């Protein structure tokens, strides 16, 4: 028996295209993360601000009827950004300055990657991730994810992400996180 062809299309979209579908994209995000629906209102201004950042890139998976099934985006990280400063603080505690700089000087922050539960487990997350990173010109990529095991962990390890920081607590979130990274290109 041969595998049936995938129905979803993966395409890169512009910031204004995401803006037009922001409600749908955030609904996908809260569904995938299993967050309360009110999270949408907190996240909307954050996602809009991210779109303005240098080298922002977004890829989406579109279903049969052009509905959003998956999304991934990120941008070039820089000093002064909240996530950058949090990671720097954590890394400085466990790594020599040369290691801190090797990760934080020229990186793409993979900010979001989500696939609707009904479409998970068919390789869509990996394809979104690879397509997103294909167009990145930074020398490495960094991300944070709650400590595993999870589908996200399995995916990041499969694509070659290594530990940068483990069991780290970001300000305001009690969950332990891992910061993972890998050199580019994939
Ligand atoms: C993390 C997430 C994006 C991964 O998406 P996904 O589409 O399920 O993941 P993958 O692309 O890695 O799917 C791979 C699985 O599909 C299977 N698969 C089937 N066909 C495949 C193909 N052609 N290519 C690759 N994998 C395929 C693999 O065997 C693998 O199965 P396994 O996980 O049991 O080993 C998704 O699970 C998600 O949205 N989770 C909730 C939100 C989240 O945690 N986001 C990350 C925050 S940091």
TrEMBL record:
Residue ranges annotated for the N-acetyltransferase domain, each copy included: 8-185
Protein keywords: Acyltransferase, Transferase
Matches recorded under InterPro entries: Acyl_CoA_acyltransferase (IPR016181), Bact_Acetyltransf (IPR050832), GNAT_dom (IPR000182)
Keyword set includes Hydrolase: no
GO molecular function list: acyltransferase activity, transferring groups other than amino-acyl groups
Parts forming coiled coils: none
PANTHER family: AMINOALKYLPHOSPHONATE N-ACETYLTRANSFERASE-RELATED (PTHR43877:SF2), AMINOALKYLPHOSPHONATE N-ACETYLTRANSFERASE-RELATED-RELATED (PTHR43877)
Protein name: Acetyltransferase (GNAT) family protein
Organism: Lentzea albidocapillata
């Amino acid at each position: 028996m041969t595998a049936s062809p995938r129905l979803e299309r993966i395409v890169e979209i512009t910031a204004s295209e995401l803006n037009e579908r922001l409600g749908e994209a955030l609904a996908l995000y809260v569904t995938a993360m299993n967050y309360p629906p009110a999270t949408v209102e907190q996240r909307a201004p954050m996602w809009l601000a991210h779109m303005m950042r240098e080298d922002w890139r977004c890829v989406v998976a579109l279903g049969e009827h052009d509905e959003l099934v998956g999304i991934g985006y990120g941008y070039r990280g820089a000093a002064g950004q909240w996530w950058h400063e949090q990671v720097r603080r954590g890394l400085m505690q466990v790594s020599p300055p040369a290691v801190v700089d090797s990760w934080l000087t020229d990186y793409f922050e993979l900010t979001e990657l989500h696939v609707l539960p009904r479409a998970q487990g068919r390789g869509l997350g990996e394809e979104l991730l690879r397509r997103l990173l294909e167009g990145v010109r930074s020398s490495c990529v960094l991300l944070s994810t709650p400590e595993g095991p999870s589908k996200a962990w399995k995916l990041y390890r499969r694509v070659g992400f290594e530990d940068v920081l483990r069991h780290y607590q970001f300000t305001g979130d009690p969950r332990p996180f891992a910061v993972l990274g890998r050199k580019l290109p994939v």
